[in-house]
Amino acid sequence: MPDDISPTVENVRVVVRVRPMDQRERLDGAAGCVSVDAVHGTIAVTRSNTTSPEPPRIYAYDAVFDSDTSQVS
Question: Does residue 7 belong to any structural domain of this protein?
Fold first, then answer.
C-alpha cells in the first residue's frame, strides 16, 4: 500500500428493538417468541410451533431493547 493512502476503519454498531405485539397478534392468541437480555445485549428466539423441541437461538448485538421501550426519546 502506498504511504499516502491510509486504511480506513469503519465501525458499525447494531442495535435491536423488539416490537410489541400488535392488536391482531394479541387477538389471534399469538405467543411471544423473543426474549431480551439487555444486560448481555442478546435476544433468544424460541420456535414453539415445531414438533420436536429446539433450543432457543441466541443472537448478540451492541444493544437490545425490549418491547416496553419507547421509540420516542
Answer: no
